[in-house]
Write a structure and sequence with these properties.
Shape: globular
Radius of gyration: 18 Å
Number of strands: 11
Distance between the termini: 16 Å
Strand content: 15-25%
Number of helices: 8
Structural class: alpha/beta
Largest sheet: 5 strands, parallel
Length: 228
């Protein structure tokens, strides 16, 4: 279980069923959640609620997510903003990030992926709020930047730590090389996708995963972390 104390999330979307679904999932994860159906309400609520994370839809009537993001940053709201959109266009992604958004998710997305992005933002911007994560034989301590496997602290480089952290939080989910690159190396990574294979190989060695039972390769799809 993840130890979460006082972490507040604001969800902003004009589709009620999406708000309800995300709110239920995040409340079950231990977050304090409030919702808004439009940009103006979101700005007012963010000022009052002071969330650590704002999940903000782009395509809303009236004030869209881009303008809401700009206004939130202008008024000094100290929150990580994850923007949601149905548009898979580079221009929209660049626009959102240039206005101050911290991350970007394209609809449709899995709840597990959103949760991983939220944890990543908290880890980067509000590390004091995150405690330990225990998934199967893995224990992740973000404050110490340590990952233990079967009660043994692993010797990991910063990139290995981020990659294993991402895979453990997303265990059971097939992760493509492109997704891994975005999550671990960032959107502006200009290198080759083969770098993922190199780091996967290194993690397998450190986990003594000779038979690839922990980190499985799915040809043509990517990798999947399977926990015993």
């Amino acid at each position: 279980m993840k130890s979460i104390k006082g972490v507040k999330i604001l969800l902003v979307d004009d589709e009620p069923h999406i708000l309800q679904f995300l709110e239920l999932g995040l409340v079950n994860e231990g977050f304090e959640v409030k919702t808004a159906a439009n940009g103006l309400t979101a700005i007012n609520l963010a000022t009052e609620f002071q969330p650590q994370v704002i999940v903000l839809d782009v395509m809303m009537p009236g004030m869209d997510g881009f303008e809401a993001c700009r206004m939130m940053k202008k008024t000094g709201i100290n929150a990580a903003i994850i923007m949601l959109t149905a548009k898979d266009e580079i221009e929209d992604r660049v626009k959102g990030l240039s206005l101050g958004a911290d991350d970007y998710l394209i609809k449709p997305f899995s709840f597990e992926e959103l949760l991983a992005r939220i944890h990543a933002r908290l880890r980067n911007q509000f590390p004091s709020l995150i405690g330990e994560v225990v998934n199967g034989p893995f224990r992740i301590d973000d404050r110490r930047k340590e990952i233990s496997y079967q009660d043994r602290v692993l010797e990991l480089s910063p990139t290995e730590y981020e990659l294993l952290h991402y895979m453990v939080l997303n265990y059971g989910i097939v992760l493509s090389k492109a997704k891994i690159l975005d999550a671990v190396w960032g959107y502006d990574f200009g290198g080759e996708e083969n770098i993922v294979e190199v780091y996967i190989r290194s993690l397998r060695e450190k986990l003594d995963d000779k038979e690839h039972k922990l980190i499985r390769t799915l040809r043509g799809s990517g990798y999947r972390m399977d926990l015993p």
